[in-house]
Amino acid sequence: MLFVQIILPVFLIVLSGFVLEKKAKLDFRTLSYSSLYLFTPALVFSALMKEEISFALAGRIGLFMLLYTAAMMVLSLSAGRLLRFDRETRSALHLTTVMMNVGNFGLPLAWFAFGQAGLEVSILTFFFFNLVLSSLAIVLAQGSTATLKDAIVNALKIPLFHAGVLALALQAAGMRVPELLLRPIDLLGQAAIPLMLVLLGMQLARTRLQTGAAFFALSSLLRLGVAPVVGLALAWTLGIQGLERNVIILQTSTPAAVLPLLYSLKFGTRPDLVAGAIFTSTLLSAGTLTILLYLLQ
């Protein structure tokens, strides 16, 4: 029943985006920019402003995401060196194992699984990991040509960062946003979750699988099999329990993120392997996430 009630609705919306792309060939760039620069920042800001934020919770999630990213990076580096991948292939492996789809996939999944009760945790997880996705992912895609300055500048260009920081600052100062402003922002944010899934389906429809079955298998194993174990171990170590633990683990056990594909296309970091790993892990996640939900409950 968990598959039918939680996983299947997510994949049905993804499928609608897949079919839409195949039939209509919409302007993907315009839709993705609308999501990135308007709907998603509105969702983050409104969600963080509507309820009192626990800064202790925010601190725990921030620390969890830092340690989680470091642990997955070490595992990915070790696997790449053990198998003697070249630099570009190792970078593709990092992009598809360290970077999970906590936005397009994780947020809607957490919403279907836990509803309003888990929204604060899921939004904070989404916010903190996007700092990684908009900085470390750029460095990995560029390889040795990347600089810390470029990563920081790139992160500052993402309005999601500003929306989260502004909401946290207003909460810390005890200031409230007038209802006249919060209501339209909240309404814009409600469009973000379904649009994320539609965009994921559209991106999958554009993906062309090339050779690299062994790479796809390794990437999916690390992303869908090893990552939940790492998350559970860190949650136990940090004393994260209950609903908070379940939301974080579910979101960080999602398939490979889509945004690194854009980076790999721009910098030539084996986009064929990145696209194939995203497609493979997304399909396999229907099974792994169903099992994970049973275990978490």
Topology:
Elements: H1 2-24, H2 28-50, H3 55-82, H4 87-97, H5 102-114, H6 119-133, H7 136-142, H8 148-156, H9 159-172, H10 179-190, H11 192-206, H12 213-238, H13 242-251, H14 259-267, H15 271-296
Helix pairs in contact: 1-5, 1-11, 1-15, 2-6, 2-9, 2-10, 2-11, 3-4, 3-6, 3-12, 4-15, 5-6, 5-11, 5-13, 6-13, 7-14, 12-13, 12-15, 14-15
Summarize the structure.
The chain is mainly α and 297 residues long. It contains 15 helices and no strands. The model has no long low-confidence stretch (mean pLDDT 86).
Overview of the molecule:
The protein has 297 residues and is an all-alpha fold. The protein has one domain (2-296): Na+/H+ antiporter like fold, CATH 1.20.1530.20. The protein is built from 15 helices and no strands. It has helices spanning 2-24, 28-50, 55-82, 87-97, 102-114, 119-133, 136-142, 148-156, 159-172, 179-190, 192-206, 213-238, 242-251, 259-267, 271-296.
Feature tags:
297 residues, mainly alpha, Na+/H+ antiporter like fold, 15 helices, 81% helix, 0% strand
Question: In angstroms, what is the radius of gyration?
Answer: 18 Å
- Approximately how much helix is present in the residues? over 70%
Number of strands: 0
SS summary, helix count: 15
Task: Give the amount of beta strand, in percent.
Answer: under 5%
Average pLDDT reading: 86
Silhouette: globular
Contiguous runs where pLDDT drops below 50 for at least 5 residues: none
What structural class results from the helix and strand content? mainly alpha
Say what the CATH topology is: Na+/H+ antiporter like fold
SSE arrangement, N to C: HHHHHHHHHHHHHHH
* Largest pleated sheet: none
Task: Please indicate the count of domains.
Answer: 1
Instruction: Report the CATH C-level class.
Output: Mainly Alpha
- Cα end-to-end separation: 13 Å
| CATH-defined architecture | Up-down Bundle
